[in-house]
Amino acid sequence: MNELTEFRQQVRQWLEQNCPVSMRGAAALDEIYRGGSRETFSSDEAKLWFERMLDKGWTAPGWPKQYGGAGLSDPQVKVLKQEMKRLGCRAPLEAGQGLAMLGPALLEFGTEQQKLEHLPRIARGEVRWCQGYSEPGAGSDLANVQCRAKDMGDHFLINGTKIWTSNADVADWIFCLVRTDPDAGKQEGISFLLVDMAQPGVSVKPIELISGDSDFCQVFLDDVRAEKHNLIGEINQGWTVGKRLLQHERTLMSEIGDLSMGAASDLPECARLYIGLENGKLAESQLRMRVAQSEMNSQVLQLAQRKAFEEAKSGRVNPAATSFFKYYATEQQSVRYELMLALMGERALGWEHKRMDVSSFEDQELSVTRNWAFSKALTIAGGSSEIQLNVIAKRVLGLPDRTEGANKS
Amino acid sequence: MTMVLTEAQNLLKDTARDFIQSKAPVAALRQLREYYKDLPEGSCNAAAIELGYSQELWEQMSELGWAGIVIPEAYGGLEFGYQGLGVVLEECGRTLAASPLFATVALGAGCIQEIGSDEQKQTLLPKVAEGRTTLALALEEHPRHTPTRIATCAEATDDGYTLKGFKTFVLDGHCADQLVVVARTSGGIEESEGISLFLVDANAPGVRRSRTAMLDSRNVARIVFDNVRLKSEALIGMEGQGYPALETVLDRARILLAAEMLGGVQECFERTIEYLKEREQFGTKIGSFQALQHRAAKMLTEVELSQAAVMAALSALDENSSNARLLASLVKARLNDTFELITNEAVQMHGGMGVTDELDIGLFLKRARVTMQILGDSSYHRDRYASLSGY
Questions:
Q1: Hey, are the CB atoms on B287 and A327 less than 8 Å from each other?
Q2: pLDDT the model gives residue A26
Q3: pLDDT(B158) > 80
Q4: Annotated catalytic residue: which of A126, A249, A278, A311?
Q5: All domains of chain B, ordered by start, with CATH?
Q6: Which run of H or E residues covers position A165?
C-alpha cells in the first residue's frame, strides 16, 4: 500500500472516532471557533473537537512541529482536508488572518525567534490577528501607505490609521504595513510590523456594511509602540513581505465559495425548491440556463484549482493562479447570489428587524439576503477585481506600462 | 483524475508541435483553400485541394502512429490514450491543420471500437491505425446538432437492409473510404430507441456525395442514400440499440474536438498579446491601455479555465470515468464560448488588420464558428448538462 493511502486510512479512522457528531455538517459562520482572547467556544463539543485536533497538530497541519503544527507534507494536508470534507467535519479553528495569511508569511520571512514566538500561539488559537493594510487614502492603491513608524532606537512609534480591517474589534494583534522612510519611493520605504493591540493609543471603530454586518473596522494608532524584534523582513523592504501575504489572502478569498452557507448555496437545490420541476426540468427555462451556466463555471473553477495544485506539487507554480482565482471565484460568487435572488423572488428580500415581525421568512432565506449584500464586498476586498486584472495584465502577460510623455488619446 | 501530463505525453506534445509547425503551418490551409478560387493549370496541389487535405501529410502522421493512438494494441494501435490524442489535436488546432485524424479516428473508428463485432474490428482498425482507410460519421440531418432526430431509415430485406435518407454536415464525407451511417430501424422520429449504426462503402451504388464549401475551408459533405443495399454484416452492434454507444462515441469526440479548439484558442490569444506589445498608437504601445489590459486579463482567465476543463475531460476518458458524460458537455460548451470570445477579441484588437484576409486571425475566426456547431453548440450542452444533473 502506498504511504499516502495508508495515511488516508489512518486519518479517516481517527476522524470517525474523534470528531463529535455535532461537529459534522454545515456550521453557521459564528459557530466556527476563531481563537483569540475574546473568543469562547459555541459548545463543549466544539471545545473538545478543537483540543483533539490541536493535540494532533492539525489546527495548522502543514506547519513544522516546533511551531505548533504537525509537519505534514502538502499531499498529506490535502488528504486531511479531503477526509474532513468527506465526513463533513468543521474546521476546528477558522482559517483566518493568523492561520492562513500571517502564518505562511512568517514561515517564509520570519526569523527563528519570530516563528517560535508567534506561530504556536496562532496554532493554539491563543492570539487572533488582523491585517492593517488599507488606509483611507490607500485602498486599491495599497502602496500609498501613510501610517508612519518612527525609529525610536529600541522600538518604533506608530501614528496613523488603518481601514477595512476585518475583525479588528476582536483581534489581539495586528500586522501592519507602515512607512518607515517617507523620502523613499512609494514601494520602497514601507516596513512590515507586528503590533500588540492591547496598549494605550489603539482604538477600533466598527464599520456597518450594506449587509448589516460590521466585520470591517477602522483602527486608529496614536503613539503606539512596536518592539524592534517585531519587524518582519528588512527595514524598508516590507512591501515584499506584504505582497507575498496578499497572495495567501487571494487564495483564502477564492476558497470562500467553499464556506457552507447552508442548503441555499446549492443552486440547483434552491432552484428545485423555489421554481419547481416540470418533466424533470426547471420550470423557468431562462433561469434553468443561468443555473446550468453558473454550475458549469463553478465546476470548471474547481478543475482549474485542482490543476494548479497538481502543477505546484510537481514543482511548476502557475504565476497567474492566485490572481485569476481570486478574480474569477469572487465574481462567480457574486453572480451566484444574484441568481439566488432571482430564483427566490420575494423570499430573498426579507430583512432582519429589531421591532417588526419577520417570522414569515425562514432564517435561511434571511441569510441569503444578507449574504447577497455581503457578496458585493468580495469583489472589492483583498484587491478589487480591477486590481487583479491589472496584476494579470502586467505581471503575468507582461503588457507594458504607459510610457511617459505619450500623446494623450 | 490527472491534471499534469506525463513525461511521455509531454514528449509526444513536443514532437507533434515540431512536426505540425513545419509540415502543416497555417500557410498549408491557405493552399488548400485555393479550391474555392481558380485552380492554376497543372498545380501540384491539385490532388490535395481535391481531397481537402494533403495525403502526404496524413501518411507521415500515420507513420508517427497518430492514427492509432487510441486504438488497442490488439488491433495494431498504440493504445496510448485520449490525453495523447488530445495533445496531438491541440497542436493541430494551433495551425488549423487539416487531416482525417478527427473524423476517421475519433468518430468513425470510435464507433467500430465501441460496438463493432470482432470481425469488423479486425478488418478495419489495423487499416485505420496504418492510415490506409479513412472513415466518416454520417449523423446530422438538421441545421443544428440533434443526434436523436434521425429520419434516415434502414428497412430490413431478405439478406440485409435498404438504406434511404439524407445526411448533412458529414465531416470528411466526400473523401472517406467508408461511412458509419446513423439510421433508424424502428421508433419515432425523436426517439433514441430504434437507432442503428451501419458500415457503408462510400462508393456503393446509391450513395451520392457532394462536398459543400465551408467557411473554414475544411471538409464537409452532404450525402444522399438512395435505396442503398446493405448486407446484414453491415450492421454495427445490435439493431435498434445503437444510440447509447453512439452517445459515448460522441462524448469522446466532443472532448477531443475541444482539445483541437484549445489549440486554436491559445494560438489566437498568444498572437493577440504579442500584437498588443508591438503595435503603437498615440505614441505608445496599445498594450499599455487599461481598456485593453483588462480584456486581455479576462481572456487569460478564460484560457486557463479552458485548459483545465480539457485536461480533466481527457483524463476522465482515459480513466473510463462515469463523469465523462457530464464533462463532455461542460468542456464543449466552455470551448465554444472561449473560442468565440478569443477570436472576436483577437480580430477587434488587431484593428483594421484583423479583418484582412492577409492576417491569419480571420482563419481562426472562421474555424471557430464551424467547430462551435460540430457536435453541439453551447445551448445544446448547457441544456444537456442541466438534464444530466437532474434539473
A1: no
A2: 75
A3: yes
A4: A249
A5: 7-129 (1.10.540.10), 135-241 (2.40.110.10), 244-388 (1.20.140.10)
A6: strand A155-166
Residue A121 lies in a domain: no
Taking the alpha carbons at both ends of chain B, their separation in whole angstroms is 26
Residues of B in contact with A288 (CB under 8 A): 386, 391
Average pLDDT estimate for B299-321: 97
Is the ipTM, as predicted for this complex, more than 0.90?
A: yes
Q: With respect to residue A26, please indicate whether it lies within any of the assigned structural domains.
A: yes
Q: Calculate helix-pair angle for B361-373, B324-349, nearest 10 degrees.
A: 150
Residues A175 and A193: beta-carbon distance below 8 Å? yes
In a domain, A34, yes or no: yes
Specify the CATH number for the domain of residue A84: 1.10.540
How confident is the model at residue A259, as a pLDDT? 43
Q: Does B297 touch chain A (CB under 8 A)?
A: yes
Cell of B183: 439510421
With cut-offs at 50, 70 and 90, classify the pLDDT of residue B140: very high
Same-domain pairing of A55 and A151: no
Instruction: Give the C-alpha separation, A265 to A133, whole Å.
Output: 31
Residue A215 pLDDT > 90: no
**How does pLDDT run across A160-209, given as a tens digit for each residue?**
999 999 999 999 999 999 999 999 888 899 999 999 999 999 999 999 98
Return d(Cα B28, Cα A74) in angstroms, integer: 47
| Contact yes or no for A406 and B282 at CB 8 A | yes
Helix (H, G, I), strand (E, B) or coil at B285: strand
Percentage of residues in chain A with pLDDT exceeding 70?
95
Window A:252-271, CB contacts with B under 8 Å: 268, 271
Nearest to B342 by CA among B288, B292, B295, B280: B295
C-alpha–C-alpha distance, residues B29 and B17, integer Å: 16
What confidence score (pLDDT) does residue A350 get?
Answer: 94
pLDDT at A237: 93
CA distance A277 to A17: 40
Predicted pLDDT at A185:
84
| A288 → closest Cβ in B3, B292, B386 | B386
In total, chain B counts a number of residues equal to: 391
Report pLDDT for A260. 38
pLDDT in tens, A45-78: 999 999 999 999 999 999 999 999 999 998 899 9
Active site residue A362: no
- Strand, coil or helix: what is A164? strand
Which residue matches cell numbers 458524460?
B325
- Residue A20 near residue A53 (C-beta atoms within 8 A): no
Strand-pair category, A129-132 with A148-151 = unpaired
The C-alpha atoms of residue A32 and residue A43 are separated, in whole angstroms, by 10
Mean pLDDT of chain B: 95
> Does A310 contact B at CB distance below 8 Å?
yes
What is the span of the domain harbouring residue A291?
A: 255-396
